[in-house]
Write a structure and sequence with these properties.
Length: 154
Amino acid sequence: MTYEELAYEFMETMGRMRKHKSQKQMNDAMHGEQFVLFYIAKHEGDVIPSDISEEMGTSTARVAAALNNLESKGLITRKIDREDRRRILVNLTENGREQVKERYKSVMGVTVRMLEYLGENDAKEMVRIMKRIAEKGPENFMDPTTDCPAVSKE
């Protein structure tokens, strides 16, 4: 089997995984409003929106939209930094902390059950492989002449 055939099989499998509800829950936790809530919780508040934008790899406008939605839901507060009035500091409300706790518990439950399904050896191997891929990141596999993924010319 060639690497191109393996890549096709991998992409097909990833597509099937996206259709599962549990995978959607995990994806939601890694993107959008859920990511913002987890990020603020992890940094224990007083977060600057531009830091969220940088971590997510998305525009400040997109983060501002997410913050507006979260604020309207009563999950975050924004205040002007007393030391630098140009900066806005974002914090979780009590409801926000509660939601993060519940979502974390849900995502961890799905992840634990998935790893249990794989068994100890395969679970450890999967985590090892994911760590190895994360060391480089997808951008390191781009074709620099086209700014697109490199495709073998076989």
